[in-house]
Amino acid sequence: MLEIGGDGRTWLLSGPTSSYALSLTEDDTLLHLHWGPRIGLADAEVLADRPLPPYRGFESQLDGLEEYPVEGGPRFVRPALSVRTDGIRGTEWTFSAYEVEDDELRLRFADGGLGITLHYRMRHDVVERWVTLANEGSAVEVLRADSATWTLPLREDWRLSQVHGRWAAESQLVRTDLTYGEQVIGSRRGHTGHQHLPWVALDTEGATEERGEVYGCALAWSGTWRVCVAQLPDARVQITGGIGYDDSGLLRLEAGESYTTPVFAGLWSDGGFGGASRAWHAYQRAYVIPHAEQDRPVLYNSWEATEFDISEDQQRELARRAAAMGVELFVVDDGWFGKRTSDRAGLGDWTPNPDRFPAGLKPLAEDVRALGMQFGIWVEPEMVNADSDLYRAHPDWVQFQPGRKRTEFRNQLVLNLAREDVQEYLWEKLDNLLSGAPIDYVKWDFNRCFTDAGWPGEPYPQKLWVEHVHAFYRLLDRLRAAHPGVAFESCSGGGGRIDLGVMARTDQVWTSDNTDPLDRLAIQHGFSQIHPARVMAAWVTDSPNTQLNDRVSSLRFRFVSAMAGVLGVGGDLAKWSEEELAEAREWVELYKEIRSVVQRGDLFRLRPPAGGLSAVQYVLDDEVVVLAWLQAQHYGEPVAPLRLQGLEPTKTYECRESGEVHRGAVLMHHGMPAGLRGDFDAAVIRLRRI
Ligand code: GLA
């Protein structure tokens, strides 16, 4: 809902529980008024009438109060917009007009020939903000154009939550007290990165998992980015975020050209961290994730089982075992194309390896389909190995600096996707691939960061950082439009490209290359702060864990860990015993029963993974699912009962496992035993409201 007051200079956006307000002063300064619980227009107008702080030399009257601080004038905060026109620094803008279309508010400003529009849209309780620049004058160099600056109310003792990590250890949740100065997170790597999800949360007055005010911001961008949380000298907090890590230049806008930033979304919740997560999840399921109402199938992926050593017969045998287990989607990972027998060759040559698949992928795909499963493949289109036909033909198609070394990671180089010829090549190859065999699923990988981001011959080469991502998005969008039945997974060496931007055009994401079921609990805990189980792929792999740590764990523990997201199996089924295969079949069957509740329900994190008992709970209509894990039991003490959340206290709930009937109030206040013992135990508990 959008209300307008103050003679068309105060705007109030409201969702079910929250409001966001801003207004223009008489001299066209755009001030932030409110972000928090729902208020009325009269309240916003009172806030708009408050005077600016008194003038003091050495201080800005605007810092910390402005909705989108541009560079120049009496401001000392980090500018959200920094441009150069004819060598002149900064922006002096005047308000032109506002427009409302389909619940989207647009505030138009102009500085000479440069039009700057701030966009606002409320979806549930999430405020989406973005900016467009349209140039009608002399060329403008855009050093930085953040998507938004968020202003928090003046309070004491803010705390910052973020999820940080690295390869195989993504999404580790940390909370630290905020202090004066700036805390900056981001990626200067060309992709979202394993190091941080582009999300922060801020709370004050000691929010807990289910209580207290929490503010969150998430950026919808899959390239280089920066989010800066600044506590200003007067203790006000602002969060500014957008494309680019440094301010060294994003692009140049000639007359007639325009540019749109990605969305930087903000959410206020007074339901604690859990309430904030549920609101983010509901928003993504409703507005971001394609076909979120459809449950994702159980997948098998051969990567950990076979790595590069694949053959058609071996894949067929794995498919037979996977189908017998109840798997619904069989994915052939790396190694099916070009000369890809190791990571040293083949990337770029997207045709089936004739030694391995003499008749192409079609026969295997058809056999997989005949087994009742969908068929999927792995690709990494943005990359090329030096040892490939593509690179031999087009050594200038990669990002490089003339006369400098071409840095390789995993023996590969990054294609310059900003080039139209590269875009066309990839479109043609991928379109042919999807047309040539019955392919239902594409795992799209990205296995190295940008290093030598040069573009010889291009007058403004650094634009490739932005244009690469736009080209990646366009390619995905075009493939999705041409092949509407194909689902896509975003992978980047595990969780290196997870954000609201890629999520708008993929069906699920690969959470981490770390499939250890214990490590995964912590990774999933961090991931769930912002993204829903509906996109969080998780595989059951072998024990001892072959990839990372040789940890031994039961099939039960591995399955229950992976059942907290989109279940997959990634073990070497050729080595699983008949008993293991039979047990796995039962787990897959159980997952299919609970998956709509897991994938579409409300998530309650009952206990974080911190060494002992941890648990999550999902609620969808009358159905409740609890997944509980015990890492280690100590001193023979019985494990604490699990206090459930989000139930109706006066209703009764029947436990499908035990047949017992419980009262909602008792389950929430006193809890129920999960019945776990020893080390690495786990349980699934299903309850139904009666
Ligand atoms: C990345 C992915 C893995 C696998 C390999 C294949 O590391 O995260 O799941 O697909 O590439 O090379």
UniProtKB/TrEMBL annotation:
InterPro entries: Aldolase_TIM, Alpga-gal_N_sf, Alpha-glycosidase_related, GH, Glyco_hydro_36, Glyco_hydro_36_C, Glyco_hydro_36_N, Glyco_hydro_b
Entry's EC annotation: 3.2.1.22
One of the GO BP terms on file: carbohydrate catabolic process
Catalyzed reactions: Hydrolysis of terminal, non-reducing alpha-D-galactose residues in alpha-D-galactosides, including galactose oligosaccharides, galactomannans and galactolipids
Keywords: Glycosidase, Hydrolase
Residues spanning the membrane: none
Glycosyl hydrolase family 36 N-terminal domain span: 30-253
Pfam families attached to this UniProt entry: Glyco_hydro_36C (PF16874), Glyco_hydro_36N (PF16875), Melibiase (PF02065)
UniProt KW Hydrolase keyword: yes
CDD domains per the UniProt record, alphabetical: GH36
Binding residues annotated for substrate, in chain numbering: W167, D333, D334, R410, K443, W444, D445, F446, N447, C491, D513
Superkingdom, natural source: Bacteria
Cited Gene3D superfamilies: Aldolase class I, alpha-galactosidase from lactobacil brevis, Golgi alpha-mannosidase II
Molecular function (Gene Ontology), one example: alpha-galactosidase activity
Residues annotated as the enzyme's active site: D445, D513
Domain (Glycosyl hydrolase family 36 C-terminal) ranges: 614-687
UniProt similarity note: Belongs to the glycosyl hydrolase.
Name listed for the protein in its UniProt record: Alpha-galactosidase
